[in-house]
Fold each of these.
Amino acid sequence: MSTPIVVDSISKRFGSFEAVRDVTFRAPAGAITALLGPSGSGKSTVLRMIAGLEEPNEGRIFMGDDELTIKSVQERQVGFVFQHYALFRHMSVADNVAFGLRVRKESKQTRDSRVEELLDLVQLTPFADRYPDQLSGGQRQRVALARALAPQPQVLLLDEPFGALDAKVRQDLRRWLDELHRELGVTSLLVTHDQEEALELANQIVVMHEGKVEQVGSPGEIYDEPATPFVAGFVGAANVLHGEVVDGHVHLGSIRIPGAAHLDEGAAAAAFVRPHDVVVTSDEDGTDAVIERVASLGWLSRVSLRLPGGETLVAHIPNDDLHGAAEGSTVRVDLRNPKAFMAPERDSQDETATLVS
Amino acid sequence: MSVAVGTQVAKARRGRRGLIALALVWVALLLLLPLAAIFWTVVRAGFSSVTHTLTQPDVLHAFQLTAIITVITVLVTGVFGVIVAWVLVRQRFHGRSLLNAMVDIPFALSPVTVGLAAVVLFGPGGWFQPFFAARGIQVIYALPAMILVTIFICIPFTIREVVPVLEEIGLDEEDASRTLGASVWHTFFKVTLPNIRWALAYGIALTTARAIGEIGAVLIVSGLIQGKTETATLFIYRAYEERQTAEAYVVALVLAAVSVGLLIVIEVLRHRQEKERTRT
């Protein structure tokens, strides 16, 4: 029943601004694919082009074997959920859900039973006669979802669906959407700037930056094997250590970080190390670091460390491994799973590592 | 210290009350007093003057003419007003700000000027006069010119009411409607129009009031032919000139009553709609 979506080298310009540049990916049938990126990365524009709300300047979009780009919005039969709900404010909840069915001239019987079914699905049956302005944000977004699903679309497009909600509601709704998707199995595309949301919900993530695709992969691949410095920095927190490539390692003073065999000897490089990959060790290969600050996060601590060369690192260390080491004392740490990239032009000469999150 | 603060608060309170009183007196003097004066004059003249006036053929014809002009004006400015407002808000094109400014021209011009412009275009020796004369259509000193100038004067009302509402609503609901398969027309009638209906109703109410009350432009283009091109306001004007003051006041009272009634209807409708939406 569900269909894959194929986006084939689409580009979109608004005047002289290139919003989307040569974007290609495939959203597998029945899965959730997340389009992840900071605001202005072009992810919403890609979604709107799939829906037909924007027209690409170049490229084609397919749903299964059907070319979408030659169809009008109305013919595409996609379900679209907007960040700010976009409910019809003069219609009751039931009428909102029934809208797509009325347009398709479904009989009143079909309509009523389908609306009932969907309101049950989104757990809003008692609210059928309410108007959108009498509902909370979370309830509104559930109505919007029911409305989008009512005409049984081939694909579901969600544009920052939780973006306007507060943290607690967002968490609940995310879990709820996950369950709903397992139940329905409709091919879904989720636009979000929240990496946690993407990692939790998606089967596949497309990371976008400045209108281009940086990487396509499973959440595990995106997190553990970032293909570009942008992905390493954007998905999950990471310390960035700048050094020089010597013998396949990134050298910062006396410290040698492995994993730079693919880079040119002598080149300036940046090594990305996740806070939880900074591990206390008794190993000879480790590096001595001075503890500058310790902030307890419960069972683990957020520790600011200063390396011999003066760079600072943020580490997430289980309290047990710290053995009560106080601020000012020295620990030996190992930098695990570093990812080394060619360094972009550096604009400052200070040696501190930066934590990007 | 606390004493000083206390007097400050008392002063501010007095100031607020003073402003409220001023607003009430202003409204009473300038809006209600004239209405009351007309009403009083008619009542004093007695009920017979009302029935006498309202059965005169000239008066009936004048009301009929005003009604025709008003209905056509409301239809035309309503339809085109919504179209122009939609274009102004939803489309980005060169000359958009020029169009936006042009919409207000009727506000800026004196109606007498509008009437004179119509004479230049359609009057004897006017630019379009030969065209219509050749087809046997009498424009000036007849109904067509009177409708034209009234429409011109009423253009801005609907547009200025609808534009801000369209801007506030944004595009999301229309986009949602289209992704659900609704055509452009279906989207307009089922989504956009219901959202702007109260703004449109206000625009229509203002247009109606203005069309009923218009005199300057109509005076110039009507030719003042008694019983033929005489609207209600023109009747008042002539009756007053001819010292038939009782008739003038009765007709004036009817016009005022229609306008006030119109405002009340709109208020009630809006109130009812709000109640409907907040029911649980």
Amino acid sequence: MRILLRRLRSAVITLFVVVSFNFFLFRAAPGDAVSSFAVTPLSAQARANLRHEFQLDQPLWRQYLAYLDQLLHGNLGRSFQTAQPVSSILWRDLQNTVPMVLLGTVFAAVMGTLLGTMAAWRRGTFFDRSSVGGALALSALPSQWLGLVGILLFAGVLPTSGRVDDFVSSSGWAHIVDVTRHMILPSATIAVVLLGQYVLLSRAAVLDTLRQDFVLAARAEGNRDRYVLWRRAFPNALLPMTTVFALSMGQVVAGSILVETVFSWPGIGREVYDAVLGRDYPVLEGAFLVLTISVLVCNLCADLLYAKLDPRVSV
Amino acid sequence: MSAVGVLLTVPRRLRTGRRLSRSAYVAVVLLAALVVAATFCSQLAPYGVHSVVGDPYEPPSASHWLGLDDGGVDVLTLLLYGARISLLVGFASALVSAVIGGVVGITAGYFGGRVDACLMRITDVFLVIPDVPLMIVVAAIWGPSLLHIIVVIGVLMWTRTARVIRAQTLSLRERGFVQRVRQMGASHVRILCRHVLPNLAPLLVASTILTIATGVFAEAALSFLGLGDPTEVSWGSMIEDAFQRSAMSVGAWWAVLPPGICIALVVLLCSVVGRSVEDSLAGSDRTVYLGPRSFRIVRLPSRSAG
């Protein structure tokens, strides 16, 4: 329980630092939260409301307190481009991003862990060397480039842009199929980018486990190789891998900007790209905050999961 | 004392390390060749970087080995000019992060206590903040320029260096020769400059080389999102151009593939060199590994294979 509280405390401190940093960073941006509404001319009443919410006519420290106060109430301001509340935009985006990213990450984790385990078991062989080499090569590829290569290869076979087919309105089962088909390429790109990491990490974890005494004991008992590897060594090597999975989830959501841009996937990454192009600072500010929080939450989950799975770590 | 000088004086003190692997030497040579090619790009390039020499997206031929891009500019020429900006950003931002990470790591490791706790807390915060989004946010607010990109990338990549250097400084501080000169009354500055820093140099170099790869990667990401210097060609901006001007729907693979392969090559070379230097330093604490298949005692090539 003490460790958990300490983790929670440091997460809260980090969050506070990021929120403060966010506030001052965006005060350095030209204009304020009301000045540059592009598309829809905002009514005078709405402007006055926003000004009052964020106390823009007050000194900086009052603005800061107002910002924290609005943040606690879930108010992230309004988008310059659409004048919609930023929080609802981001919430909608996040619901598109998470399934796509999750699919890719799970696939990479399963394949990578299996490959890495086999590579570790046959260490020094051709299989081991080629999978380590392949993993290094894969993790050196830029994800936006890999996405473009995917489009070059699969254009015509799979949809390369968007989340649904705009010209066919579908519902029910057909809709699910449509979304899944659109999801394949972006998810596969994320999976390929992550695969190398998982191979290398799981190989190292399994090698580390194979060095332990209990593996030696299991062999001394006369068990078959396959049993020793998959029933004794593998589950123990899986422990650090669960942490890696949770940790990478957060980073992948944050790193999805490039992939979502390539495939026009209407998620939070694409929103960041549009906000950059349109200099939509409130959206950018909110998105950065959401991405940081998702990393923090995933880190916290990783700690909890590890403590739950490994009784040696007392929570 | 120049950086090279520091590096050359090291082996006399720290002889625990093995020699670098052969692949590392090959990687160094290739990397040097790339740097030379990038430096002399204006002499080496077959055509001008702005000169239109054919139709848009003309496929590869004998006179244009890698074809033409959307504006009818030779892709090989663009690749050479792009190497200049990409490598410049990679090296310069790695240097920035080496300075910051080195100072933070040495200060935290050498002085310990409160200073250490405080600096490491800051490092932890930086470690958690997703770096690519932060780079994007800062670059978007600050405006697109080469200098901004270098600073943004450099300032956000120092955490790994700081941790590695701190750990090594902690162990150096307790070694006999540092303890002795301290008892002889040497000042902190003298101990740090004459005894700690030279022993840290190879590690710092290894860490910086690994950071170059991250820098090249980050440059490609920022340029892809339109946050690079719009007047300069880089590998990242080439990928962006190919994406924005629908090279994929034309099927112009020659405009898409080369810049990505170059980025991957630099990243691979840097990681081979960096890891090899790190491994040769970690030679002293090698563990023995009982191979389960053959029941022979095998020496592990490195402690962290990941």
Amino acid sequence: MAKQMMLTGNYAAAYGVKLADVDVVPIYPITPQTSIIEKIVELIDKKEIDAEFIPAESEHSVMAMAVSAQATGARCFTASSAQGLVYMHENLFVASGCRLPVVMCMVCRALGTPQGLGYDFGDALDQRDTSWIQIYLEDAQEILDMVIQAYKIAEDKKVLLPVAIAYEGFAISHYLEPVTIPDREMVKTFLPAYTPHVALSDVENPVQMGYCDMNGSLMTEIRYQQHEAMENAKSVIEKVDLEYGKIFGRSYGGHIEKIMMEDAQIAILAMGSIVSTSRIAVTTLREKGLKIGLLKLRVFRPFPWEKIIDITKNLKMLIVLDRDVSIGSTGIVYSEVAGALYNLEKRPLLLNYILGLGGRDITVEMIVDIVSKSINDTKNGKVQSHVNWYGVRGL
Amino acid sequence: MRKTFEHMVQDSDTLQGIRAGHSFCPGCPGALLHKFVAQAMGPNTIISFGASCVALPGMIFPQATTLGSIYISMASSASGLTGISAALKVLKRKKRLKSKEKITPIGIAGDGSACDIGFAALSGAAERNDDGIFFVFDNEAYMNTGIQRSGLTPQYSWTVTTLQGKQQRKKNIPKIMAAHDIPYCATVTYAFPEDFISKIKKAKEMGPGFKYFHVLSPCPTGWKFPESKTIEVSRLAVETGMWDLFEVEHGKLRITYRPKRKRAVKEYLSLQKRFAHLTEKEFESIQQTVDKK
């Protein structure tokens, strides 16, 4: 029987781990990920989760443990944040290179220096090229549902890539919300125990994992296979989302959730908690007669450029809000969107706003202000200022 | 009848462990390590490799090793063992293991990868007493990258990064590992195969927990001695007292081989061109250190 509980984002992730019947959980503590560990350990202690918990000595080791345990034939989960993610960076490539469907929560926090506890997507987006599927979420219910879906996506034979569930620290990880916990037996039917096609534990058929390509004889082909797997993941993500919706009553729109987009001429594109704020801002602007919509980019890898083209091609203007920046260039999401739209004959004017770094608050008023600035900026039909740092003090 | 060393090698030739066409230099004892391990451990073994010459036969296609293995990254051999060990435990509990036999995870890594860059992982696995056996292939430098000094390069040794000889002493890893209070910690080398193999068998038969093997591995390429002399150098290391064969079982130290009459360290050192620049004073200083032990 499904039931309701008040859970934080991190606790919802732990309940997702419970329902997904995870086998091995190596973790190293880092704020704001820690309450996931606390909850998982508590649930193991109460015998609600039957898993091996490994209190590792570093994040680098955590990912190595997840890789080797998954390679042995166990379903693995871990979580990290900021400096921890950067510290495990090297081994993230190994998880995807060995095609091991590990699932991890990236509880986003700004990277030091300056050191801090505030959130932005700099840490998760820094893992962009590690060949992990990346899904950016907005609330606790979505986190619980997506931990379960993540295994279904990752373990699909056409995919076999690790999945990262990314959400902002504190704003989402520590925010208490009512969450529906699905029925355990129904989840078991949706997601049976992990059955890998190759495993180190099958000692009668020994395999070597972590192959070495000394002179590029296979690198291109292996990378292409990973790329193909990412492409395959596009339809798998949509399929799993719909299937989950049919069984459990909640679907999230796959790659992109479209909000008030029917007759929209202007749209905002964002990820994570900015979407929640923008929902209110867009409603307010609609009430004033502006034909504006909102796009919640959920899946960043594989990047859904076909979908972005399809949804935005008839817009007059698209404003990309980046809670991240590639210093020396633009917002990271913006450059991906720009790349997707470039070859179109008719495409929307594209603006980028970089804001909310290190957890600085983003209010409804700010989003309304950004929209009005963007309209002013493009009055003569051209973009005057493509990339805008919003709210920089002392400028 | 006591078996000679040649007998042991011939025996292990018939066992799986390593195939022809491996990537070791001529005279490298790495192939022997693979054979001894396979002979003592049997097929129900999974290897986690750390970056090292000794890992290459498991990594380069076509793989020359016969046991299943994984290579993760330079610093991750011990974490690999930990992950395999945890997975085996939970899969057995959940009745998802195909094999009915006990499977043992082992780690094999070089001195640099295990005891320098990956030492946190090694120490962590020992502290948690994760179930498995760990082998450090100690050839006393970063040999795979071209003979750069490591924390385990001995004092006065030439390497490409210690042109005048290393100033610092060799890090005493077996002592540090024994200080973790693990069930078993042993030192071995190739010239004493019975000692080597019986220690592995003992570790395999012990209850769950972390067992550590430090394998002194003479390297003809990096130590600069003729490739036919590997076993001789290995034997001299022990006969001169430069390398002690011992085991620490549940905290109890036992010397497993004691040379009847210690030979002069110069016999061991002068076989290796990496010590060719040593002065009489430096030979004497090494001799005194060994005598004091």
